[in-house]
């Protein structure tokens, strides 16, 4: 039996819709009264695990799930050893540099050398500023990154932007985009290579659905 | 003006109560309709930041807040460079090793060598198993750690236990305690040394409150 790791949060509804279209119904996870984190589809051909987005690649890397859906941002930040199979074309967002509207910075290179950038995505942020050759101190936060510039702790933030509403509410504007992100189908490399539980069949179905 | 970093979640209510008793009222943070992450007390003598528990030491370490309240578990896991001033005697919980009730393990040393332990507290877990000299692979998860043993990905978990309800609901039992944790008052070391904004006054008041 195939086990699939599904991410809580923004990508869940589209992920469940996708599997429904290839015959696997995990919509029980969308029921607000549901407290289960592991369910089987009604035909008993697959199991789904409901986990935090960052944990999806962990379950897939350890082979506990053969397949998973996760945002490209998580793959880019954590660099897990999983097979990145398909761009699922939903869950679009971008990893951006943002600064207070009231500041004078309108591009990343204008940020002061040895300035501070607050981010949940410390690896992505570090890589980006190294590439543009600007020495920056990364302040690692786990939430409400917009508080960095508001409190004066950092000149800028690197964060995931989807509608831009949070930035706007906090008086911040995007000045650069590191990369764009969408949901990805990932697989446990060995299970994929060995075609365990006829994994290829399911993947082919998903791919043709995405292409159509 | 003093800035104080307060942790979202389990410690918030008691933290706000503590500061209220020394004359600083941040109870606006308890109002469910509140969306502000930074407020001043009505007398305008202090500002409070509402941040994730793990981010409290970050704000204090960078001197953005001179004081903060955070669980000992976060200090133990992250080892931030802050002054650990007082045990506030609330927010009691313990960092424990737990296994499925159905397993045969009743003590950490009985766990199989090269087994797996899932945890959000990877540093605490690694240090503990190194100390008891048991080679263990730590599986880093960011939430729902109890899924580790349920799915068979790990033999055990290391997690924070307060009432024990989550463990019970998931068929897990505690077999060892790494350490006990309570809320701590922390300070930015330099601000504390320089007695910025008469920090010592406030700290003395809090300490005598705790001792009484």
UniProtKB/TrEMBL annotation, chains A, B:
Q: Which reaction does it catalyse?
A: 1-(5-phospho-beta-D-ribosyl)-ATP + diphosphate = 5-phospho-alpha-D-ribose 1-diphosphate + ATP
What Pfam families does the annotation carry?
Answer: HisG (PF01634)
Give an example GO biological process: L-histidine biosynthetic process
The ATP phosphoribosyltransferase catalytic domain, residue ranges: 52-207
- This protein's GO CC annotations: cytoplasm
How is this protein organized at the quaternary level?
Heteromultimer composed of HisG and HisZ subunits.
Function statement: Catalyzes the condensation of ATP and 5-phosphoribose 1-diphosphate to form N'-(5'-phosphoribosyl)-ATP (PR-ATP). Has a crucial role in the pathway because the rate of histidine biosynthesis seems to be controlled primarily by regulation of HisG enzymatic activity.
Name of the protein in its database record: ATP phosphoribosyltransferase
User: Gene encoding it?
Assistant: hisG
């Amino acid at each position: 039996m195939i086990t699939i790791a599904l991410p809580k949060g923004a990508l869940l509804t589209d992920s469940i819709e996708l599997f429904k279209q290839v015959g696997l119904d995990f919509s029980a996870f969308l029921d607000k009264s549901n407290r289960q984190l592991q369910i089987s589809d009604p035909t008993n051909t697959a199991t789904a695990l409901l986990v935090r987005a960052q944990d999806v690649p962990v379950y897939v890397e350890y082979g506990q799930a053969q397949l998973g859906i996760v945002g490209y941002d998580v793959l880019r930040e954590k660099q897990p050893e999983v097979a990145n199979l398909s761009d699922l074309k939903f869950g679009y967002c971008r990893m951006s540099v943002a600064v207070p509207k009231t500041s004078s910075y309108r591009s990343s290179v204008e940020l002061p050398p040895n300035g501070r950038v607050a981010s949940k995505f410390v690896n992505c942020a570090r890589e980006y500023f190294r590439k543009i050759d600007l020495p920056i101190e990364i302040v690692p936060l786990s939430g409400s990154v917009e508080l960095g510039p508001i409190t004066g702790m950092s000149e800028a933030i690197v964060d995931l932007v989807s509608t831009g509403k949070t930035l706007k509410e906090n008086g911040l504007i995007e000045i650069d985009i590191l990369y764009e992100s969408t949901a990805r189908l990932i697989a446990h490399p060995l299970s994929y290579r060995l075609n365990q539980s006829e994994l290829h069949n399911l993947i082919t179905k998903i791919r043709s659905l995405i292409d159509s």
